[in-house]
Amino acid sequence: MLLFLSLLILVASSVSGSDSDKSALLQFKASLSDPYGALSNWVPTGSSHCSWDGVTCDSNSRVSALNITGGGRGEGGNSCARIAQFPLYGFGIRRNCYYGSDNVVKLAGSISPEVAKLTELRVLSLPFNELSGEIPVEVWGMEKLEVLDLEGNDISGSLPSRFGGLKGLRVLNLGFNGISGEIPDSLSGFTSLQVLNLAGNRVNGGAVPKEIGFSCGKLEYLELAGNFLIGGIPRSLGNCSGLRSLVLYSNLLQEAIPVELGRLNELQVLDVSRNSLSGSIPLELKYCSNLSVLVLSNLFDPVPSSEGDSYLGLSSSSDEFNFFEGVIPAEIATLPKLKIIWAPRVLAPGNLPSDWGSCDNLEMVNFGQNLFNGEISEGFIHCRKLHFLDLSLNRLTGELSEKPLAPCMTVFDVSGNVGVPFIGDVGGLTVYHNFGGNNFTGDLQSMPIGLDRLGEQTGYAFLAVENKLTGPFPGDLLEKCNGLDSMIVNVSNNKIIGQIPADIESNPKQPGQIRDLKYLSLAGNNLSGSIPASLGQLHSLEVLDLSSNLLSGEIPKDLVNLSNLTVLLLNNNKLSGQIPPGLANVTTLSAFNASFNNLSGPLPLKDNLMKCSSVLGNPFLRSCRMFSLTVPSTDPQGRDLLNSAATPPSSPPQRSGNSSAFNSIEIASITSASAILSVLIALVILYVYTRKWNPRSRIGGSARKEVTIFTDIGVRLTFEDVVRATGSFNASNCIGSGGFGATYKAEISLGVLVAIKRLAIGRFQGVQQFDAEIKTLGRLRHPNLVTLIGYHASETEMFLIYNYLPDGQAIGYYSRAEGLTASICFRG
């Protein structure tokens, strides 16, 4: 009888608990808005609550898991919060938990405290919905909860300083919400914690608690990126022996990378970009034998998209303040499992690592803009999986050949300047090989694209602009064109000789016309002979630039067959004969230049396109003889072609007997003016070049962070306070802009508003002069002047702090303040 009574009580208790869970679920539903009917089968009568969408029960019909992922139905065991579902990522890439479902799920509203009545609940996973408000305090007291995953909502409030429950918590994922306040050191009490993700919130006012590293033996993922954390990276994190991913990008962290991180043998991802770190890269990282992704800097801003993923959006390079002393140790660069090493504009000048050892897994390398010296290592040839290599804007030399290229690369950029933009729609995968702006020598080779990259959806760009390539034009340069969807070739401004092959439109290895070439520039070389008539069979061609060569003969009539041609540049050659009249019928042609040749005959009528200004220096062209005389250029071959402009050859064309001539005074005046203009242009170029390559402007990590205060407003004003209050100068806080920068509204403390005028770097003569004169401005007091509270000035950032004026008053005041600043900063 006693046993029977015990069983009866147990069953009654189970039924009571089950009913209580059902009631709590219905109250949870009642607090939410469900526009897409994701919870439509949550009804009081009928089926058991254990069969409701997103609900998982144990053997006693008690709710053990609630999984409702926005964007798709994350049912039952498909919890996005499972450890296996957390991918290794950096660069701000967020996980995708939608599972390809066609069913739309978007719950809105606040989380009901009634959910805490689900006393057997172990998983509460509601990511990527539109939940708002604070997390109920009752949730923090749930004893059996192991997974709390609310990523990608609009949750606000702060984390409690002490937690009453959650003793077995394994996953705390609150990433990409609106959580504010500091990270409490009491998180160290979660000894079973495997995932801690607070990325993309508004966590501010404090550092990463060192206490996290005191009991982190099970921690695998620590994601704190995209906040306003200050101080250094805690050395105690070296105790987290199981840590696989440490992502700290886009904070205000300073100091050096701790050498203790070298103890993290399981570490696979380390992203510390977009902070203010300095010092040297610790050699101890070589002991991280499983390291797969190393991101030390990132000139792109990870911006979350509305779908829950993210993309890399362009951002001001001034947002990257990391600057490390010395180069990356070879022992780190050659770690056997390394896939991505990303470090643009962050390292001190030095030599590019030459020994790449065993790089079988290496896929992406970015060392752009680091002023590295030496030659490009042939060791890259052994990196069989390498498909992205950016060594642009360095000081590398060497001979251009196929050997070190790894033909399977999607991006190979060793350019010394900004590459030529793509013309037209290349579609699909774009393979980008840029050798431009270096001192590469040797003969021009066949284009280094691998056969495995050829395909109808592949667009290919081959750029070798402004080098010292020599030798004849290779007849097989375009031999791989037939396997591509579209193609761009630019080998301008080299020393290539010989003739353009007469069969350039054909592929010698695959007979047939090359139909996919859209852009061909051979300008600024030493090509001779005639223009092949076969160019007229490149029917996809949109841009043809043969300017500044030694080409002779007539302009082929076949060019009129290029129905997609938009730009045709033939200036600065030795062409003769007439301009084909049919060119006037090419309706797509928008830019034409044939200046400084020996053309004759009439000028075809083509709206306003073909006019005498586009055929200067052709004394035998009818109707344009008055334009045939020009002042000789300071550039013998006129190779600096901008906006389709032409410059005359070194010796002026012979004057026609009927052409008007300049007198000696006019020639002397124009020549003097040209010389003065050339000197001024040279000085401007020199000024821009020295500013561009001045290493001091790149040392963001050591830039001063002081804020000078003129007027006490009763609250603390630091560099970090200003950056945090403006949301890192987020556009949503911008209240106006002008020629010298933009103005932002900033709430420094509760109810304390100021206006921050962020000045454009490069508009002032120097930090010291700006510093001195702005102090004079700070002492001015007048009822009609907006009050200057303080300022910050360094090589990488300048801003002014004003008292905030509401509504339209602010615009006038800040505009006048900008004018006053301009008069100060540009005085002689």
TrEMBL record:
The keyword Secreted does not apply. ATP binds at K757. Gene3D superfamilies: Phosphorylase Kinase, domain 1, Ribonuclease Inhibitor. GO terms for cellular component: plasma membrane. It catalyses: L-seryl-[protein] + ATP = O-phospho-L-seryl-[protein] + ADP + H(+); L-threonyl-[protein] + ATP = O-phospho-L-threonyl-[protein] + ADP + H(+). It is an enzyme of class 2 (transferase). Residues 729-828 form the Protein kinase domain. Its main location: membrane. PANTHER family: RECEPTOR KINASE-LIKE PROTEIN XA21 (PTHR48054), RECEPTOR-LIKE PROTEIN 2 ISOFORM X1 (PTHR48054:SF52). This is non-specific serine/threonine protein kinase. It comes from Rhododendron williamsianum. The lineage of its organism: Eukaryota, Viridiplantae, Streptophyta, Embryophyta, Tracheophyta.
